[in-house]
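Bench notes, afternoon.
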Amino acid sequence: MQKFTAPQKTDTLKSNTTTCDIVMFFRLILLTVLLHSLFPATVSAVATEKNNGFNRIISLYPAHTENLAALGASEKLIGISPSDTYPPEILSKQRFSHHDNAEKFIAAQPDLVLIRPMVARAAPQLIEQLEGAGITVISVQPRSIEEMLDYWLYLGRLSGREHAAVEMVAEFNGELEADRKKIQTIAMEDRPLVYFESIHSKMKTFSPTSIAIFVLEQAGGRNIATDAKSRKGSNIAAYGKERILSHAEDIDIFLAQQGRMNRVTREIIEQEPGFQAIRAIREGSVFLVDEQLVSRPTRRILEGIRIVHDILYPAGK
């Protein structure tokens, strides 16, 4: 199984579009060299020989699916995961799970199966069987905004949509810079302190370097759980009720992602034993945001930034 490690953090968030394009051009060159050094010659040769990347891709992670579709590679997707719900045009494709047997995958004749580390840990035997059948299996999941941009370029390389990937990164940076102007005049000390919940049942928040916290900060919020630490490089970080309550009077807004990972409601949060000590909860400042818009490494996090901004700075207040 091949793994991709993104290049170290570099300055990709440029305000000048021309500069950004130049940076992305050289970044793509660097990424191409890196891919050749990371992968066996047979893997790189397949994509290069075809001159259009892999052509029969099964994606077992909704972010892979969504990003490939955004890059214009929907026709190369022959299978998606059971949890895929976006975009609508790919939902009729055959569903695959890491719980399925290898024969189902092999019968579909993919040349690439894209997974993420969670699947790699959960289904090592499946991966071994697929690779034994000559199918390339690649595990990748970005953990920060910088890794996300490299990840998009990487998917462009794998799908033969390199130019589209460069354009997607440049457009993202341009829109991000426009959104930043909404908060640039707000002093840091005037921005609301936010506790951002990732998994209510386990009292978990997000790693300070995660994509979700990036969304919060770009929307104009301040993360109160800056001391949270993730395990195994995850975006999720254990925090615990005791530490949450230690900030009780300082939390201006209690924000929670909502979705498959965190099946929570406002009532569940408000009725959690001890949570009435939290000022945000007493004052009714509890808000939910779709986890796909804040945790998933796709360009829809721009939508998440705008939604969170409107929560933090409601019109007329």
